Amino acid sequence: MRVRFFLAALLLVTHASFGANTASKGKSPPAPIEAAVRLADWQLARMHDGAPVSRKTHETSNPRAWEQAAFWVGMTALADAGAPPRIREAILAMGRANQWLPGAKPYFADDHAITQSYLWAATHGAGAEAREPTRKLFDKVIDEPAVTTLAFFVPPEGYGAAECLKRWCWCDALFMAPPAFVEMTRQTQDERYRAFATKEFWATTDFLFDPAEHLYYRDSRFFERRDAKGRKMFWSRGNGWVFGGMARIIPGLAADSPDRKRMESLFVEMAARLKQLQKPDGYWPPSLLAPEESPPETSGTAFFTYGLAWGIRTGLLPREEYAPVVKRGWDALLRAIQPDGRLGWVQQVSDRPESVEPGDTQYYGVGAFLLAATEIAALNEAGR
């Protein structure tokens, strides 16, 4: 009943999907927010079928799991960027339908991702009730912290039974959980949440960051893996999760804190490497050190474009050096909009570089596109 109510609510706040990409017809590309609203509307109209998702998992249809959560994170940014009121109303309808509950696993970072949209809702009309289930969960995580290694070992029971998943032992987790903990401190003034987030962020970084390549391994299983040409495997979207996550964490850290200074330095270090790895067509390859014959891939590209645009706007990155990189990335994302309105070329759910097809789309790819669009618009505005 609750799911049917949510879908009905979305139909009330969603316009019809848009047609073919205007850029492909020789017309001027749409303004960033216009393009984002069109894509958001298209996705909202298809929440029941994933849009449709090419590779469905047991989490795809779960409105509290990470796949949909990343879409709602992008929606909060779009609402803040001046999108029509229906975008805000869709976020609130989703949260109410979920009863503001996080995912089912209390220590699993992916199940914390949806709380970022709840915390946004708490300050945009939903009130404290949107925050309290998350606060209760975070208190448990802090007061009864998981005690386990960060080494990733898959037991016979399967991937989901890996003991280290109770901590942030895979790089994607740095987007999923710490922005919510940092935001909880901002809303409650309780420093414990931010302290926990930064402590665990640095534990993960010290373990997974490769100082020679200035990139993150997805998890410890990839330390020794190499491709057919002997190159290290650095997954585009995995690094995108981290880079986009830092753009969401840093604003919540005190301006003069050692944690902020260290994270800003790390962000700039990664940005310099990512600038080198962008392909001439504007995309980043699924495997960052393997550009040859690589397909377009929009989820990693969107997160990198978002982070780089944010870095320019906030003064961490010089505009003259990075603006061309951002423009190429944004143009590539616009080209990936398919004739039926979907964002294509999104690598499906995985933990490593894989093949991608033009029609492949996913909630998290759309969410990353929305984040990129809002920062492109803000950057354009700041440059006037």
Automatic annotation (TrEMBL):
Gene Ontology MF, one: hydrolase activity
Pfam family, one: Glyco_hydro_88
Cleaved signal peptide residues: 1-22
Gene3D superfamilies in UniProt: 1.50.10.10
Superkingdom: Bacteria
GO biological process: carbohydrate metabolic process
Keyword terms: Hydrolase, Signal
SUPFAM superfamilies: Six-hairpin glycosidases
Name of the protein in question: Glycosyl hydrolase family 88
Annotated source species: Steroidobacter agaridevorans
